[in-house]
TrEMBL record:
The chain crosses the membrane at residues 17-38, 44-63, 75-92, 98-115, 122-137, 143-162, 169-187. The keyword Metal-binding does not apply. It comes from Kaistia dalseonensis. This is Ferredoxin-NADP reductase/Na+-translocating ferredoxin:NAD+ oxidoreductase RnfD subunit. Keywords: Flavoprotein, FMN, Membrane, Phosphoprotein, Translocase, Transmembrane, Transmembrane helix, Transport.
Amino acid sequence: MNTIVDRFLNHVTMYRLVLFYVAGLLAVSFGLGFFKLVPHDPTALAFSGVVILAVCWLTNRLFAILFRVPVNTESIYITALILALIMPPVTASNLVGVAGLAVASVVAIASKFLLAIGRKHIFNPVAIGVFASAMLLDQPATWWVGGNMTLLPFVLVGGLLVVRKVQRFDMIGVYILANLVATLATTTPEMYGEALSEALIYSPLFFAGFAMLTEPLTAPHAKIPRLIYGALVGALSSPNVHIGSFYLSPEVAFLVGNLFAYAVSPKGRFKLTLLRIEKMASGCYDFVFATEKKLAFKAGQYLDWTLHVRHPDDRGNRRPFTIASAPTEGEVRLGVKFYPGPSAFKRTLSAMKPGDVIYGSQIAGSFTLPRNETEKLAFIAGGIGVTPFRSMVQDMIDRKDRRPAILLYGNNRLDEIAYADIFDRAERELGLRTVYAVAEPHAAGSNLHQGLIDEALIQREIPDFRDRTFYISGPRAMVVRFQRVLKHLGVARSRIHVDFFPGFA
């Protein structure tokens, strides 16, 4: 079952998955409305949804033309659909209610352009939109989708898929725990049962966490700040938390959390101009870019890349990719594997010419070299999952970092091996040992293993494996498999660092 779920998740972007999630909830709510299983008339829900979608689309169109930047099409509709799920549905005769929907929609979309520093927006668009509607017109969000028992199973199933996709179970867990602790801390003991029931069943706790807390552009990416962010938003979302006579709402909790996230996160959005494209292996290419200003990142970190895709498909126009270059290099490299039937994003990427631009944001990731330069390392790479190791090894060469390191690099065919020149140079200059595992028959070479990387190969090539820190990068199924193998071999959990590439052909 896990393999089937992951196979589906590997072929859809995070944004498209969230779009499916919120669109599905709205469709289910509309259908249940005819049976009076949700508290709102389906006609009012449909009318409100149309108003919000129209205003969001028009506002985004105007600002995109004004600022001349590519935008993530999915994010427009995600914002609109979340607003439709939490703002009170109204009919055309309720002019104040319609005005509240319009204000929330305009402010939500406009905030992505206007409330931004260095091309990075600060606040969750939905949170700032509904806050503006409440403050200006006294039309607050009612978060009705999160307080309905009938919808709860749909909220949970879809939401857990989103969390599995983005691998943020730790942040969601801390968020829920902090909310429950704050709720109990502000409730008398005899009311604990009712308070917990209200929080877990009849509050927006789960929907807000799944649909908004996971939004990557306004949340920290580093682990510790991410956990603090989840705890902060969770605690402040508790219904009894107040400052004097002012009781905080979920949207206010998000705004406070967003300020914290902005303070601790890398700043800015980067414009990268294509210099050239280099073929590095069969079906694999390096896109080499110049930047407006030098990027400050650590070897092994990734960047969110946004490309203007004329007709985006269900995999969207924004992707996280590891930066294949080292921080010591003047150019920025993006290593990409192209498969048959590529996505619209990759088709557009492959058609780029020197001088074309792409935008990057959110430098993040903890898949980086340890500070202790005497620590012995072991790298396990599968396919295009080798890109963070290209960054790390090039960085080690440039800094003359001679820490003991071994790389096991697996591919299906010999001609799929990428960056062999970098690894060969590291072997000569640093003593890095690379073993290429190739599945195709009759492959031969002094440092080549015919077959897949397995437990026996690890034991043979890395006899001191219990003393090494392992880094694993590749498809999720491969990463999970080697986590299990290393644990079975007795490698401590703290010595296993993982990264995975979610596909997106």
